[in-house]
Amino acid sequence: MLWAALLALQGVCVGAAHGMQHYPAAWGHYDVCKSQIYTEEGLAWDYMACQPEAVDMTKYLRVTIDPPNITCGDPPETYCALENPYMCNNECDASTEELAHPPELMFDFEGRNPTTFWQSTSWKKYPKPLQVNLTLSWNKTIELTDDIILTFESGRPEQMVLEKSLDQGRTWTPYQFYATDCLDAFTMEPKTVNELTQRTLLDIICTEDYSRGYVWKNDKTVRFEIKDRFALFAGPRLHNMASLYGQLDTTKTLRDFFTITDLRIRLLKPATGATMVDENNLSRYFYAISDIKVQGRCKCNLHANTCVYDKGRLGCECEHNTTGPDCSRCKRHYHGRAWSVGSYLPIPKGTANICEYYSCKEIAMICCGDTTDIAVEIPLKCSSGTVKVRTGTIGPLQKHPEHQPQKETTRVCDNAMLRCQNGGTCHHHQRCHCSAGFTGVLCERARCSGGECDGQSSGQDPLLLLLLQPMILVFLLH
Ligand SMILES: [Ca+2]
Question: What residues contact 22, with CB distance under 8 A and at least 6 apart?
Answer without folding.
Answer: 237, 238, 239
